[in-house]
Amino acid sequence: MSGLQPDAGPAPLLLGERIVYPESPRWKDGALWFSDVHDYAVKRVSADGTVCTVVDVPGRPAGLGFLPDGRLLIASALDRCLWTWDGQALTLAADLSRLTRGLLNDMVVDGAGRAFVGDTGFNLMAGERPRPGQVILAAEDHRSRVFRSRVVTTDVVFPNGAAVSPDGRVYWVAETAAHRVSRFRITADGDLVDRRTFAELPDMPDGLCLDETGALWVALLRKGEFWRIAADGTTTDIVSADGRLAVACTLGGRDRRTLFLCSADTTMADLARGTSSGQMHTLAAPPGAGWP
């Protein structure tokens, strides 16, 4: 894996492999947690590169996020449900199937524990006709411990990777099928309003994350590159996935100065059959901010 870095930082280092298809990476408690989507499991990779399974998810894990009390929240694509993992048991948190048009996809959980979950709008791998997706907000009532959910924006084109600003007021989402990243203002009650385009892109954006300068790192899936796009829309850095699909990224590690890059050696046709070989690389970068 090679990169173009204006400040001549170190080259990306291989952290872990023996992964099928890594998505939604999240840093927590000294390790990187991620959905190994087509192995139907949430996994964790430690600093020495050891990959272990945390919990099997029969409904196929997609977006991940950590709630304020430390529980892991998991969006499962096929059954369209949210699940919590407390280290011992996988518990149904919310059934979102009544709201969902397609499959549940990536997700970001903000500092207040609100989950913004992407609904693809259609099942791409099943060959369904494309239609607009939406974003569902799910939040736990702290007294009843019941998750309440509702749609907070519609007409998003295959919502995928997402981020929330440190103040909880801005939401970015990759609209994969539209080749763009959009930006919304988050209202006090969690609605997504005042939409605008953050970046038009030459390929399908997948996962993304935010750094302290307001720049986004965005995985351009089929192009096989990770782009750092500054707040003014300028592309400042490009890191190649060396012929693999560029799937997702996040900032974590000590002081959030490590960029974790998820990639996969597969094709879209092979992926539809669950055939893939994933890898995780790391790269020094400006510190992360907000969520994930």
From TrEMBL:
Keyword Transferase: no
Oxidoreductase among keywords: no
InterPro entries given in the database record: 6-blade_b-propeller_TolB-like (IPR011042), SGL (IPR013658), SMP-30 (IPR005511), SMP-30/CGR1_Lactonase (IPR051262)
Domain SMP-30/Gluconolactonase/LRE-like region: 22-264
Keywords tagged on the record: Hydrolase
Family, similarity comment: Belongs to the SMP-30/CGR1 family.
Protein name, per record: SMP-30/gluconolactonase/LRE family protein
